[in-house]
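This part of the workshop introduces the protein records we will be handling. The question running through the whole workshop is how a given chain folds. To make this concrete, we reproduce a full record directly below:
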Amino acid sequence: MPTQRSEYRNGAMVTWETHRMRLVDAVGASVIKWDIRDLALQDQAGTGTDPAGVVATMVEVGAGTSEITGSKTAGYSAELVTAANDNDGISVQVADENFELTSDQIVYMGIELEINDVTQSDFIAGLCITDTALLGGMTDGVYFESVDGGTGISTVTEKDSSETQSDSEGTLVDDTLVFLEFYFNGTAVYFFIDGVEVGRVTATIPDNEALRPSLEFLTGEAVAQTMKIRQMRVIQVGR
């Protein structure tokens, strides 16, 4: 089990493990944080009911239902399932734009996920501006991305539709957990895959927009696909 350590950053007590940029908690007046477990997904009324606290956009041209639910697998927090037509899926954004990447902030985002068929799925995970079709082209965000037809993971910072994108920073494997993280220190965004730094970006950081924790997951064929999420959290420290 990783050892947790705590220290002061930006006037708050932050707790980290494994590497100093993997924040697991923070306490202080300047802290804003969100955890996917806050959605109380297990309390949904039933299939097809969106959880409270998010804005969800569904595409369901094919058979079945695109939805986010509590996971039925022990040790996992949530599950996204698409309907069964090419590009069916779900876009999920936290209801409020509470996070920003300005020089007086530190910001952490981490998500641990697995996908049943990585070559026939598309996803985005990160902090993004409000948009109902993130994979269709948003204007501002910091995120990880993978598109169907391949297994590569891209890292992206995007400001006013100008991107700094690095492709093939990691490789997805069917039914295998991958841990995607980024950390913003007020100047640069550091990207990590499975605890290893894969990139450091100082350009096109969206410092003029408030952002939301965001997920989008689509099928790349006329077959329903599944993403399981073990953990996802965002922590911001600063005023």
In short: The longest strand covers residues 226-237. The chain has one domain: 30-237. The two ends are 33 Å apart (CA to CA).
